[in-house]
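User: Hi! I'm working on a homework problem where we have to compare a predicted structure to a textbook description. Could you give me the structure for the chain below?
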Amino acid sequence: MDKDETSLRRLQTRFLIGAAMIAPIAPFLFLQGAITRWKVGVLPDAAGPKTGVAGEGDDPARLYVIGESTVAGLGARTHELALAGRFARHLSSHIGRPVEWDVLGRNGVTARRTIDELVPHMPDKPFDYILLGIGGNDVMKLSSPRRWRADMTELIGIMRDRHPMAVIFISNCPMIKYTDAIPPPSKQLLWELSQMHDANIKEFTRDMERVFYYPQPVEVRLEGFFADGIHPSEQGYDDWAAAMIKYFSENHQW
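Assistant: Happy to help. Predicted structure tokens:
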């Protein structure tokens, strides 16, 4: 058995033991989650065009952003001010070229649902860069480490098959410890799972060519980061995108 499989089995065992331990309070946790969702409400998706150009000049690079609610832009007025537009802006500044971006996000999707529901709608054109904004719902909906690895490996494989030379970026698993919207004990339990998924994806993407994950801990300015306690504000999206590009540029060759 190789090292990666041993590590995955260890994470899966931790997950199953944890699930067994919280089973007696599962009804309370379900009720707590329902109350939290009611209190927070649901922000609308970002409005406006789902394509755009960041930066000026000729010979634009092409960026595709796909994933969950942060990709859908909850918390921002437009996609230009949400994750896709802000990531494209900072990417353009780094590579010294304009960046044409396309975005497709849906609130609530996991990695599995992204494959089933969003990937079929991916534009049939070449992309130089792909950003996968995935992970929050795999934590919130309690995907196991084995499921998380299998689904993300499949999703990355699809992107690689369609765009063999693209650089694939992956946003971090959610920093749940920073939110005040989720009360204990749910907050602690979800944070533990998020850290497990973070360790998992760091391992299974480690040797993938031109695949870069933005790991925890995430260093962004917390003041003004959240729009609703869970999703970023427009400032939060900009700070987050800038932090990702800074990390990728300092730690990887691409």
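For your comparison, note the following. The first strand starts at residue 51 and ends at 54. DSSP finds nine helices and six strands in the chain. Good luck with the assignment!
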